[in-house]
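Students often ask what a holo structure prediction actually looks like on paper. The answer is less mysterious than it sounds. You provide the chain, you provide the ligand, and the output is a string of discrete structure tokens encoding the 3D arrangement of the protein together with S-adenosylmethionine.
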Amino acid sequence: MKNSILSYPLRGSYGDSKYRGNCSGYIIKDLLEYYRPNTFLECFAGSGTGFDVAKELGYINSIHLDLNRKFGSFNIMTNDLPKGFDLVFSHPPYWNIIKYSGTGNVWGGKVHKDDLSHIENYSDFIDKLNYVNKKIFDSIKVGGRHAILIGDLRKKGKYYSIIKDMEWYGQLDSHLIKIQYNTRGEKKKYYRNNFIPIAHEHLLVFKKEN
Ligand SMILES: C[S@@+](CC[C@H](N)C(=O)[O-])C[C@H]1O[C@@H](n2cnc3c(N)ncnc32)[C@H](O)[C@@H]1O
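The corresponding structure tokens follow.
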């Protein structure tokens, strides 16, 4: 991590590139190599990107949780988070642009009632994201950090900035901009578009000072 612009044209052989909304493993690798936490927890582990990175870096006690059965069917809305971690990385759904549970969606089966990607109303989504972010913040140790990766989105012509609308818990330690590669939007042809396609995400790092 040299500066506040993150660019990873390749995602690395971590997790599953076919899992929609997955992130590059290099962002998690950079975080772990920069902050060197003794203990690491990942929320919204998805396809296992963070799990594979942590394994490669020799973390034997890292924890990776997701509503997806692959990572314990852990429901962040109702289950207790383990406490006392030095670093928590979270990569929640960007509202409902990619739906995770449910037939024809990312991991199929029935739609889960607490799947954050199935919330129709934006302000309900923000309320639930605030609940989750507060819960993560409360779980980390003093001096620990929560790094959240989250994008902006545009729906029916309206721009939504999730990082602007959500509450911030803790002291902002860094705000990094990650260039997005290989998005579906990138491949679409926008004829006569009167907007600029979004090609970045935000990585906010919050520190728990006391
Ligand atoms: C953006 S994806 C994470 C992708 C992951 N970083 C990767 O590279 O594969 C968001 C994840 O949030 C999970 N999710 C949605 N609602 C959840 C909940 N209530 N509790 C835990 N995980 C949830 C979804 O199953 C999905 O895997």
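The pocket of S-adenosylmethionine is lined by residues 15, 19, 21-23, 44, 46-47, 49, 66-68, 74-77, 91-93, 100, 114-117 (CB under 6 Å).
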